[in-house]
């Protein structure tokens, strides 16, 4: 009996020393995890890591103006540079991302509102001082121009060519036709046919409306050869026409430029980027003469 009593007592002591894993001291339901692995402050409930589903993330309030997301429209991932092939074909840069040396103000010094912003040529309407359009220092006749632009919500700007710098004209639009740059979503001009992004302003509407929303990059090209013009926007040809013909003159006569004696008459001239009072950004501005 003595040995049986001792054996029973030993069994009781062994059982009392075992870990009860169902107790609150070691909960496997996450109620009391180890301190060094305590992720209780991180809520991963909204994260789907099976392919990273970010559908629950609202990016509408994010300004991605400083982000280069690479090759969205066939553009090179390296900003404001030319490939070896482009150089061999005669392309040159009109903006290198570091200086505005290829541009100047129309009939005056360049406005302080035109700034270099993270590799872009930016018209910043919030800056103090007088604004104004800028023009290329060089004049062009037959050419192919390529650039990217984006604009603030409800913004308006434009690209002009064959601009004549003369005492006769106090503004670039009084001599040079325009390819419209616009936020089609909410700028009032979007309600007017021929005033939307990609249009030959006030004369020919784009064949398709493929402009991207405000604060997203759009790629455009203008090709000029023997007075025949083609506009491309985000990969699609949207407008074509020929200047200096009876048809051109008739079209001008029906436009808001009908009383401007020198409008659309020049066969070469400066390029111009417009200050329309809204923030606008340009990059990858390149041209080749043809």
Set down the secondary structure blueprint:
Elements: H1 2-16, H2 84-88, E1 92-93, E2 103-105, E3 114-117, E4 120-123, E5 134-140, E6 143-151, E7 156-163, E8 178-182, E9 218-225, E10 228-233, E11 236-242, H3 246-253, E12 269-273, E13 280-289
Antiparallel strand pairs: 1-13, 2-5, 3-4, 4-13, 5-12, 6-9, 6-13, 7-8, 7-12, 9-10, 10-11
Tell me about this structure.
With 290 residues, the chain is mainly β. The chain has a domain at 90-289: Sandwich (Jelly Rolls). The protein is 10% helix and 27% strand. The protein has helices at 2-16, 84-88, 246-253; strands at residues 92-93, 103-105, 114-117, 120-123, 134-140, 143-151, 156-163, 178-182, 218-225, 228-233, 236-242, 269-273, 280-289. The strands form 2 sheets. Strands 1, 3, 4, 6, 9, 10, 11 and 13 form an 8-stranded antiparallel beta sheet that branches. The protein has a 5-stranded antiparallel beta sheet with strand order 2-5-12-7-8, with no helix packed on it. Residues 1-76 have low confidence and may be disordered.
Distance between the termini: 115 Å
Number of strands: 13
The CATH first-level class of the domain at 90-289 comes to: Mainly Beta
Low-confidence stretches: 1-76
Helical content (DSSP H or I, runs of 4+): under 10%
Beta fraction: 25-35%
Shape: globular
List descriptors.
8-stranded antiparallel β-sheet; Jelly Rolls; mainly beta; 290 residues
Question: Can you summarize this structure?
Answer:
By secondary structure, this protein is mainly beta. It is built from three helices and 13 strands; from the N terminus they run H-H-E-E-E-E-E-E-E-E-E-E-E-H-E-E. The protein starts with a helix and ends with a strand.
